[in-house]
Design goal:
By secondary structure, the protein is α+β, with helices and mostly antiparallel strands. It has 2 domains: about 80 residues, Alpha-Beta Plaits; about 160 residues. It has 8 helices and 6 strands; from the N terminus they run E-H-E-E-H-E-H-H-H-H-H-E-E-H. Strand 2 and strand 3 form a beta hairpin. The radius of gyration is 21 Å and the shape is elongated.
């Protein structure tokens, strides 16, 4: 028999691997297909295994909760996948607010400066994104290490990265040596972009760690656009300063 389940708390490939490992240790589990998209688990078993038993197993993997699809607060699986489609509204809203506020700053002045607007935009971007990452630093570091080329090899990079973003936010806001600040931004965001591109090419399902673990977003072209935008802005400002 096969049942589908929802597992909350998984944010990356390593979460998936840990949960699958624990579930397969249950004697009557024949196979377990675990993924980040709903339904997160499709479990084949020789005889029915109660949800509390499955919960005990996933709890050994971490702070995860498993519920059977169609029971409790869950809705039965149907052919309508609308609810499973990722919502990018939070990230679009954040970009909209940052763009609007920084444009208003320029409108309040006598003349509109594109260079200054980009400087303020990047400051706002790094302030907001570092804030969300720091709300669960450990969760971010774990999720980021699943696809970032540096964090995969140097785990501490995931803990340092949000503070680098915060430092860049302050540097852009205070206009501290903008040439050096933009060079650092180009390097940091360029490396981050490389990791996103690799994961998208492999089509491996990962949760995007750009907003930490507070707002869950799948790694997608939206993530790539976000990184490339920062790379492009820093490159434009470096070119202008030469």
């Amino acid at each position: 028999m096969t049942h589908e389940y929802k597992i909350t708390g998984m944010t990356c490939g390593s979460c998936v691997a840990r949960v699958k490992s624990e579930l397969l240790k249950i004697g009557d589990v024949l196979a377990a297909d675990i993924r980040l998209q709903s339904p997160q688990a499709t479990i084949s078993m020789s005889k029915h295994i109660t949800t509390p038993v499955l919960q005990q197993a996933v709890s050994k993997a971490g702070h995860y909760t498993i519920t059977e699809m169609g029971q409790g607060h869950e809705h039965p699986v149907s052919n309508d996948n609308t609810a499973d489609r990722p919502s990018y509204f939070p990230i679009f809203l954040i970009f909209g607010f940052i763009t609007g506020v920084t444009i208003l700053v320029q409108v309040a002045k006598d003349s509109f400066s594109w260079m200054q607007w980009m400087t303020h935009f990047m400051s706002g971007f790094f302030f907001v994104f570092s804030f969300f990452k720091m709300m669960n630093l450990k969760g971010f570091a774990e999720g980021y290490s699943s696809y970032d080329v540096v964090a995969k090899r140097v785990r501490v990079w995931g803990y340092i990265y949000p503070f680098i973003e915060l430092g860049l936010a302050i540097a852009f806001l205070m206009a501290i040596d903008l040439f050096v600040t933009n060079v650092v931004t180009l390097l940091v965001m360029g490396v981050s972009t490389a990791g996103v591109i690799q994961s998208l090419i492999k089509k491996t399902p990962f949760q995007c760690a750009c907003l930490g673990t507070v707002i869950k977003l799948p790694l997608s072209k939206v993530t790539l656009f976000e990184d490339l935008l920062m790379v492009a802005m820093s490159a434009i400002m470096i070119f202008t300063m030469l």
